[in-house]
Amino acid sequence: MRSDARRNYSLPVRSVETARAHLTVLGSLPAVLERLGVPSGPLLRQVDLRPEDFSDPERSATFEELDRLLGACVRRTGCRHFGLLVGQGIGLESLGIAGRLALNAPSIARALQDLEDFFVLQDSGAVPHVSVRDRVATFTYSIYATGLRNADQVYDLALAAMANILRQLCGAGWRADAVLLPRGRPGNIRPYREALQAPLRFDATQAALVFPSTWLNRPIPGADALLHQLLEDRAASDRSQVTPMLHDDVRRAIRALLATGDCCRATVAGRLNMHPRTLVRRLQETGTTYQALLDDMRTQIAKQLLHDTRSPVSRIAASLGYGDPTVFTRAFRRWTGLSPREFRAALPERR
Known about the structure:
Layout: E1 20-22, H1 29-35, H2 40-45, E2 60-62, H3 63-77, H4 82-87, H5 96-103, H6 108-118, E3 126-133, E4 136-143, H7 151-170, E5 178-180, H8 190-196, E6 200-201, E7 207-212, H9 225-240, H10 246-258, H11 265-271, H12 276-285, H13 290-308, H14 313-319, H15 325-336, H16 340-345
Helix pairs in contact: 5-6, 5-9, 10-11, 10-13
């Protein structure tokens, strides 16, 4: 991820109350409600929104508002894959300048890097990221805003959108080798098969599309190099107007890197163009530490996975960088007062 060499950071951490997303990303949501027989106007008014807001490129909402909205949509429609339906209407054209930049990138790899670099212009509560290992590419979407109650719907939405984006960039011949879904297997998986067109792995520890890395080297048909440069300059200027938050940037980096297994302090500092000692000092100046932010991120992820999946505790531990599940169990008890199994047992019965 390309970052500014030095930024003047403010202190707050983005939670669902402060992280925001542009409503054009969810432009199909009112139509999905109507298709399911639910008038969109009255339901949207519950979160002070109108159907026309979803076509306004200047309109955004907090993650808390969108979280409540998705929960209300699921309850009102009775559709447990509501997020998936909305995600099917999302493509690069929904992502503003970041999407246009990706369409004009010289390669698939650069397009996905552009999306990661400038995704914050559309969504300041999650991060897309591509990692490559043994000629296999893993394209992830990871939430780092805290306090989300309907993460399963957000991840369903994101995976459908990511599949659309890769089809746009790669052409109709692209297919994922697997789709990883951090949610329990629903009773009806047909909508997932139809939308994602790939083998489905429910109860995963991350939301990701897995495909051969050879796709990343392919050029994008019709890409305009000059337009790409102009859009990149514009996007960089727009990003510079976003108030930088050190905690937020660190959490974003941690969330992206946890999936790769390389989430040490030095690697995070490198993504922020800082020396590790500089990162330590600046975090101390804000009253926190790298370890505290890492533990908080691990806590949020672990709670979501324990709530939304049946993934074994040992697999959750490994996904968070713990080689020994007993070490994770001790840490989780320190964070929450409960062991992972006690936490899961105390949850309401899954719907």
